[in-house]
Every structure is written in C-alpha cells, then in structure tokens.
Design goal:
Helix content: 40-55%
Radius of gyration: 44 Å
Strand content: 15-25%
Number of helices: 28
C-alpha cells in the first residue's frame, strides 16, 4: 500500500488535498504533518512513497523542509504545492532537489495527481534498479569467491572481501594501493600468461602470487575483458586459492618424477641428484643435500648437493654422525623440522657456518632394513614449518627410501642381467661354435665390457702345464702372452690350488717381487673348473692399484666356469625377476595400507597379490574379535563367499580356528571341506592343499590368512617366507584400521564431552541468574539458523555454536554487587560491566580448542559505527560471527519479555533493527536477517 506524506499547516488545505489524493489513489495511506513534533516524527519513520509540502510552514519554510526530506529520504519524490511561493522560491526549491512545483489553484489539482502518479512510477523503477544494484553489490562483497575489477593494463580498481582475505591484506584500501604499483596482481604480463586483449575474450591460468604477509600461494585465475556500464573496457575476474591442491599435485608429481628417474637412471648418484632437485622444487627450498651413512664408522659422508656448494660438497670430509642432522634423523627415524640451525643442538656450529642454510627439513632414508642416509632440505632463512609440510616430507621420505631401495635392487638386477647376458653370450658361443678361441674371445670381451678393464687372459691347464688360450692387452686382442707364467707365480698357484687369488697392488705384493710385469696395478686370478677339476685360469689386470668390488668378483667367478654359468643363467634371471615382482607386490600392499583406512579395500588388494604372487587358486582372510574370541570371514578370493561360514567361528574347531588358537602356521596336504566347515555344495572344485597363517601385529592376533590350492602342493622355504611377509603386511593393515576406528570413536566422544561441558557452562549462567531462562537456547537456535545461510564453512559453524554458548561467560568474573544490582549502574560499575568481553577472552584463550570460538564472547558488543566495546572495532573489522550474533542477541532481547518491560511487537523490533543498520549493525546482515524473518512469517522458512 502506498504511503504519502502531506506537510501543510493549513487544516482546510490538508483536507482538500487529502480528498483529491484519496480519489486519485484509492487505499493510499496519508500521513499529515501540521506541527514540529509531527514533522520530527515523520523524519524518524520509514520513507514515504511521495511527499507534498507547502512553502509556508509554522515551524520552518518549505526549502528547509525539502532539504531535510532529501537528506533523510534521498530517493523520495517531493512536490511543492503552495499558495505562498513565487517564481524565485520555485527556482530555489528545484535547485535543492524538488521534483515538481505547483501553485495552489483548483485547476492544478489534476496536474498534481498526474505528477504524483508519474513520480511514483519513476521512483518505483528507480527503486527496482537500486535493488538490483544493491543485490549485485551484496553478492560481489559477500560471495566467498574472490572477485576483482582491473583496467586493461592491470591496475586493480575493485576487490571483494574474499579477495582481500585470500591475499591476506588487512583491508581493500591497502590492497588497491598495492595494486596501483603492482600490475596484474603482481604477475608479469609475459608469454607464460595470456591476458585477454580483445573485448569478450577470456583467459584461465594458475599462477603463483605473493600475499601481503609475505606468504606465496597458488591461485586459479579466470578473467574476462568486457565493457562495464558503458564506461570502457575492464578486466573482470575471479581468483581461487588452490595452494593445497597445487602443492599436492606438485608433491605427487615429484614422487612420480623421482620414481621415473630412478627407473631410468643406472647410477645411484644420478638418482640421488634427481631426488635432490625434486625435493628442492617440491618445497620451494634454496638447497638440498643428500648424505650417505657409514654405519660401521658411525660417520656421515657427503653425497649430492643441489643449490649451494654443488661441486664442493661431495669433496668435503666425512663427519662424526653424532653432530649431524643425518645422525639425529636416523636415530629418531622420523622427519625433523629445524626452524633455526644455530639454535639447534643437532649440528655442530662449525659445520653449520659452512652453509647459508638456516632452516632444515631432515628426511630419514631407510627401507627394508637398509639405511641409505638422509635428505636435508635447506632454506636460507629461519622459518617455521606447517604440519602439512612435515606430513608431505614424511610421505616423501618413505617414498624416496622405497625408490632408493628399488633403485638399488634394480641396479643389482641390471648388473645381474648384464652378467647373465655376458654368460648367455659366452654360452651361445660355447654351444654354437666348435672354435674354442672364439668362445674365449667372447668371454674376454664380456669381461672387458663389464669391468672396463684393458688386460685379461685365459690359460688352459693340462697335465700340470699352462697354455695360453686367448688374451686382451691394452684393449687389443693378442696372439701370445705378454709374459709367460712362472712356476711360482700367481697363475700356477691358482691352477694347482683351485682357489682364486686377488692382488689389489701388484707392485707391493711378494708374488711380484723381482718380477717384471707389463702392468703393476691390480690382478685377480680365478680357476676355471668343470666337475671340481681345474681346466684353466682366468687373469684380469688393471694398470693402477684397484680394489675389486664384490660385483666384479662375482662377474669373474661366474665367467670362470662357462658351463656352470650357462646353467645358472636362467635360474639367476628368474630369481631376480621373482624378487622384483614380490618387492613390487609388497610395495603395492604397503601403498594401499598408507593410502586407505578402509580395511575392505586393503584386504581386497592384499588377497589379489596373495593369489598372484603365491600362485594360489583361492585365498581368504578371517578377522579375530578379541571380545568374543571368535573369527569372522571378511574377504574371499577365488571361491564363492557363501561356501565359508557366515557367522562367528570359535577357536580350535576349524583349521582357521586352530591357526588362531596356536598362533602358528598350518599346512594341510589332504584338505577336506569338513575340516574348515566349508559348504561343499557351493564349490565347483574342492581344494587339496590348505595353508593357514596367523596375522599377528605387535604380538596380538589380528586374524588368519588362508591359502588354497586345487592341486597337491608342497610349499618350499622361500614360498613360506614370502607368505609370512604378506601375512605380516595384512596384520599391520588390520591393526591400523582398527586403531583408526578406535581413534575416530574416541575423537567423537571427546568432542561430545567438550560440547556438553560448554552447554553446562551456559546453563550455569542461567541458573546463577546472569541470563534469563531459555535465553541461550533461543540464541543458539536463531543464530545457527542465520549463520548457516551466511557462513559456508562447516568448521566455522561449530566455532559459532560454541561462541554462542559462551557469549556471556565473561560475566562469571563480574561481582554479584554489580551483576545483580537493583536500579541503574553508575559510570564506575558500567566500566566494570564492560570488561566482561575481555574477561571472556582471558578465560577462553588458553583453551586451545576454544580459541576459534572467542570471536563472539569477545566482540559481540562491538558496533558497526565503532561505538562498541571493548576495542571499538568498526565495520568489517568486527568478526563476521560477532556481527551475526549481535543482531540475533538484540532481536531476542527486544522480543522476549523482561521483568522491567514487556516484549516488543515483532514489527517494532524489525523496524528498530532496520533503523540501526549501518549504525549498530552490519547493514547487509540486517537486511538478510529481516528477509529471513519475513519469510518465516509467510511460512517460507
């Protein structure tokens, strides 16, 4: 219904004008003003749809009345209908914002009505436009997505609250001031980032941004070049902080690259350098150092450096392990985060001073009982480490350790493969050629290639005599020996004894005194045996002293007996492949355990690996329930699930029960379904062989692993050992899952206890008389209903709930003399009363889980215009939760009867909240709250 304001001191004119208005606008509400008190009341009331004023008034003149109306209601149309004005008065009124002017004449009444109708329609359209603009502005300011507006050259013009929060600026003004200097949100306009250049163009990219507090975040940025309001082209954009996602991607990418490089590289040092580079990039660090651990000497050996001292670091001397990060992290067997190396006792100061590193993440590198050393991620400034960084470092430490172990195995495997290939080539020559010289030449070529040695010979031994068969000297094949073997020399000694002799420095060995050798480095001599009989000698010589590595000795031993090597070729290769596959199987199970707490998923992967690696036909896992001392089948592979007992299985009554009861492995080679209470009718084939293994973790029974074969099978020692390894993995998985379930249950119960304690505190305040009965519960219901529409973060809603419960907890520290005083408080007592928010902060801040709930107890008496207490915060300086609660608190106080006054009517309370919007309360939240109240009154929420 329309509402018109009629300001006229003449009673007759008021009656006449009101009659014409009611005829022209049926049902209109006319508020008449004839004196000063009515005028002041009208200015305090809601805005009218239009106003008709007289120039001559008893308490003021029409111009001043017009100015007052426009100041109070800037969008209200005003028409001056007067018998006292003149042309100059009309001009002055129009300059002051008057919408139209008419002299009081009978013939002008129709014109006055038409003008009011036209101005009303125009005002309605204007209001609708303003509502759209206000709604757009509200969405821009309150939407949780960070939004911004920039000029085409990158100058930031506008930013919403979400962008200010994302970039960690104190307010929009500071951000815009920074944006005037740093173009494109601090990003360079280069070839890596394609900004829109033509109207209608859009662009999306992920970039690294510097925040106000110095932190760096990854941001997903979307921009669109468009014409805004006819004022020109502008870049409209949104920004989303994707740091956690991007860091996780980088983390996973680093793990992938480390794995790929380890699989591709043949040298351990190359693998470690690649690991260092990936760690430095993954943590945005300045340096990274990988060390080796000498357990026998208890020393740390410099390995690889990336960043600082890359060339000098590997040449540094070994250090005593007790004074290094490597020694500490290997003792602790966990990631160590050192915020300042000079304040740490883990590293000697003289070592620390050699490097610019001031903060370190130290990662232990050990896997499968083998210790490699440590990875030290260095930062050239002191800094703290977030739990997420330490967690990622821990994941990488495990992954890198496994990669190094796998790399070591792969290198061994490659070496073995190379050895086997050498043997294969020699064996092919042996089986495909009757020319012994060609066979010997092939063997020597393989030795030269594998060991990078330039001198090697083969002598045949027959009837106590040595005969030269083939040789390579200085890399070239020779037809005769460089020197004939002496009867007391190394070659004859090996031929007669059948035992190898290795000399690492021939120049200092008694065998070579007074004997000229063409090379005086190192020599290794091996017997060639067939059936235990020596048939020749293989000599390998280096020009310089040389320490023969075990791998070199192995190659020489293998190639010393061609026939044996040919037989061993397939066996060694098969063992290497099987070992590698089993290692990968353990790694797959281990990765499943660490990535998922769902025991069904883990057991599914586990049984798949059991069947594949142990060549089983079927497998099952029964979990042990300690409370009932029974087993229950959890997962089955290879046989129907309904063939197994559905309920609990008592210990000792079945094969699985015997395994669980005795906690020992059981092998049955004449299995029958009755032994394990299986339903034979559900089986298409009956197993013949049964193997049961207890799943034991930390001495506690977790369940039983059952393995079935449909054919007779006698498991060997290697098979059983690997099966035990798999059973250990499964036991760990079950234990982890159960521990996780118990931890979740404990956390839930603990959180419930916390909240019940808080509710008890709130009831204590009501019982003490600090709060009216039911006050807290009403506030809690309304506040949470309102907050769910305004605050998108579920975690914040829990903090808001706790804050509501504790909103007046600070009053516990106010003396009863002040708290329950009859009558008005004096200034000193008010000062004491206003301290209760500070008392609340002091009470709650030491309680860690309540720190995020302090906002409401500490700030709900702050006011939008800065007139509140205790800190006099203003506008959005006041936390959002406190701004929400302040509105609800006042609403409840007004609409609830108190001993000293009745409850206000609903509409009066709503009007009061609206009037205080922008003064006491956040106007956008007031409008939202009032909308909710109206919606509820209409039955829509």
């Amino acid at each position: 219904m329309a509402r018109f304001l009629l300001v006229d001191a003449n009673p007759a004119d008021r009656v006449l004008i009101a009659r014409h208005v009611q005829e022209a606008f049926p049902g209109v509400e006319i508020v008449t003003v004839e004196n000063r008190s009515q005028w002041e009341a009208a200015l305090r009331a809601e805005a009218p749809d239009a106003a008709i004023i007289e120039y001559r008034l008893s308490w003021t003149d029409g111009i001043q009345a017009l100015v007052a109306l426009k100041e109070r209601f800037p969008h209200c149309p005003v028409v001056m209908f007067t018998a006292a004005g003149d042309e100059m008065a009309a001009v002055r009124a129009m300059k002051a914002g008057l919408d139209d002017y008419f002299p009081k004449k009978p013939e002008n009444y129709p014109l006055l009505m038409d003008t009011l109708r036209r101005l009303g329609e125009t005002a309605a359209a204007r209001r609708k436009g303003r509502q759209g603009e206000d709604r757009y502005q509200f969405l821009f300011d309150e939407i949780p997505l960070a939004l911004f507006l920039m000029t085409p050259d990158g100058k930031l013009l506008k930013a919403n609250a979400a962008l200010v929060r994302t970039l960690r600026y104190p307010d929009e003004e500071t951000l815009l001031a920074q944006g005037a200097q740093e173009r494109y949100l601090g990003l360079a306009k280069d070839e890596n980032i394609s900004w829109p250049v033509a109207e209608g163009d859009s662009a999306s990219f992920i970039a690294r941004l510097q925040c106000y507090d110095g932190a760096r975040i990854w941001a997903d940025i979307n921009v669109h070049l468009a014409r805004v309001g006819g004022a020109g082209l502008f870049l409209e954009g949104s920004l989303q902080d994707v740091t956690r996602r991007q860091e996780r991607i980088r983390h996973l990418a680093a793990m992938t690259r480390i794995t790929r490089i380890a699989l591709q590289q043949n040298e351990q040092l190359a693998v470690m350098r690649a690991i260092g580079e990936q760690l430095k990039e993954a943590f945005d660090a300045d340096s990274c150092y990988l060390t080796f651990w000498d357990e026998q000497e208890n020393k740390v050996l410099p390995g690889v450096a990336v960043g600082y001292a890359e060339d000098a670091y590997p040449l540094m001397d070994a250090a005593e392990a007790d004074a290094t990060f490597t020694g500490a992290v290997l003792r602790e067997n966990r990631v160590l985060a050192v915020e300042d190396v000079f304040e740490s006792s883990l590293l000697r100061r003289d070592i620390a001073e050699k490097f610019p590193v001031r903060a370190v993440l130290a990662l232990p590198l050990k896997a499968y009982g083998k210790t490699f050393g440590a990875a030290l991620v260095g930062f050239h400034r002191s800094r703290s480490f977030a739990e997420e960084e330490i967690r990622r470092a821990d994941e990488l430490a495990v992954h890198i350790s496994l990669v190094l172990a796998t790399s070591s195995l792969l290198q061994d495997a490659r070496q073995r493969v190379a050895e086997l290939e050498s043997v294969r080539q020699a064996a092919l020559q042996l089986t495909s050629s009757l020319d012994s010289r060609m066979v010997f030449d092939a063997i020597l070529q393989q030795i030269s290639k594998l060991l990078q040695v330039a001198n090697t010979h083969i002598f045949l031994y027959e009837n106590g005599r040595l005969r030269f068969a083939a040789g390579i000297f200085q890399g070239e094949g020779i037809e005769r020996p460089v020197a004939e073997p002496r009867r007391d020399g190394i070659t004859f000694k090996v031929a007669r004894s059948g035992k190898a002799i290795v000399v690492e420095d021939a120049g200092a060995h008694p065998l070579f005194q007074n004997y000229h050798l063409p090379f005086k480095g190192a020599i290794a001599s091996f017997p060639l045996k067939i059936g235990g009989n020596v048939v020749g000698v293989l000599n390998v010589g280096y020009d310089e002293p040389h320490r023969f590595q075990p791998s070199e000795m192995r190659i020489l031993e293998l190639l010393a007996d061609q026939a044996a090597i040919a037989v061993q070729n397939a066996s060694l290769y098969e063992n290497v492949q099987r070992g590698y596959q089993r290692l990968q199987s353990l790694r797959t199970i281990d990765a499943t355990i660490t990535s998922s707490m769902d025991i069904n998923i883990t057991l599914g992967v586990f049984l798949t690996q059991v069947i594949h690696q142990l060549e089983a036909d079927a497998a099952a896992v029964a979990l042990y329930d300690s409370s009932t001392a029974t087993l229950r089948y959890a997962r089955v592979r290879g046989m129907p699930r309904n063939a197994f007992p559905r309920g609990d299985v008592r210990l000792g009554l079945t094969l699985s029960g015997k395994v669980a009861l005795q906690k020992e492995m059981l092998v049955v080679d004449d299995f029958s379904v009755e032994q394990n209470r299986l339903d034979g009718s559900a089986l298409t084939r009956i197993p013949v062989t049964y193997v049961g293994m207890p799943l034991i973790a930390k001495g506690e029974l977790q369940g039983v692993l059952e393995i079935y074969r449909f054919e007779p099978f006698s498991p060997g020692r290697e098979w059983l050992e690997f099966a035990e390894s798999l059973a250990t993995q499964a036991a760990i998985a079950v234990e982890n899952s159960r521990l996780f379930d118990r931890l979740q249950r404990f956390n839930f119960e603990l959180e419930m206890a916390y909240d019940q304690t808080l509710e008890g505190w709130a009831r204590a305040l009501e019982l003490r008389g600090v709060e009216p009965p039911g006050h807290t519960s009403r506030l809690l219901e309304v506040t949470m209903g309102f907050a769910r529409l305004v605050v998108p973060d579920e975690k914040r809603l829990l903090d808001i709930r706790r804050g509501v419960l504790l909103h007046d907890i600070g009053k516990m520290a106010i003396s009863d003399a002040v708290l329950f005083k009859d009558g008005q408080l004096d200034d000193a007592e008010w000062e004491i009363m206003r301290r209760h928010p500070e008392y609340a902060r002091q009470l709650l801040e030491p309680i860690h889980f309540l720190r995020d709930a302090i906002e409401i107890p500490y700030a709900h008496h702050e006011r939008w215009d800065g007139s509140g207490y205790p800190r006099g915060l203003k506008g959005e300086q006041i936390p959002l939760s406190a701004r929400i609660f302040a509105i609800v608190d006042v609403w409840d106080a007004l609409t609830t009867p108190r001993p000293y006054r009745p409850a206000w009517p609903r509409e009066k309370a709503i009007r009061y909240l609206s009037e205080q919007a922008g003064r006491l309360f956040d106007p956008s939240l007031v409008y939202r709250f009032v909308d909710i109240l109206h919606a509820r009154s209409l039955g829509r929420g």
